[in-house]
Amino acid sequence: MWNSEKIQEVVESNKIVIFAKGTKLMPMCGFSQHAIAIVGRLGKPFEVVNIFDDPSIRPALIEYSKWPTTPQVFVGGELLGGSDIVEEMMKDGELQKKVEAAFAG
Questions:
Q1: Which of 31, 45, 49, 105 has the most CB atoms within 10 Å of its CB?
Q2: Which pairing describes strands 78-81 and 16-20: parallel, antiparallel, or unpaired?
Q3: 71: burial class by Cβ within 10 Å (0-12, 13-18, 19+)?
Q4: Are 80 and 102 in contact (CB under 8 A)?
Q5: CATH classification at residue 31
Q6: Which domain, by its residues, includes 11?
Q7: 3-state class of 100 per DSSP?
Q8: What pLDDT is recorded for position 15?
Q9: Prediction pTM value
């Protein structure tokens, strides 16, 4: 059973984590696929939590992040947003800065 404390534990124990529909190798929606591809291009290790693995993940995630949609990309414990936001951050170099800072600490 997932709750906001378990979400927080996953977020804090991974420098990069994506809560997505599907897995790294088998995303189940275009937005999740896009977010995974963008983060994958950074060349750093990251985790993907499939929200379909347990029906309690999504409501716990929404309660934790106060963000209603997936995917949700967290870097260094901070929610950055979904695929559209991380794409913009990638274009302007902000995503790389956040990732470098997360792995420097």
A1: 49
A2: unpaired
A3: buried
A4: no
A5: 3.40.30.10
A6: 4-96
A7: helix
A8: 98
A9: 0.97
| Total domain count, the chain | 1
**Residue 18 host element (H or E):** strand 16-20
Confidence at residue 65, expressed as pLDDT on a 0 to 100 scale:
98
Q: What is the pLDDT of residue 89?
A: 98
Question: H/E/C letters for each residue in 40-90?
Answer: HCCCCCCEEEEHHHCCCHHHHHHHHHCCCCCCEEEECCEEEECHHHHHHHH
Helices 94-104, 83-91: axis angle to 10 degrees equals 90
pLDDT for position 98:
98
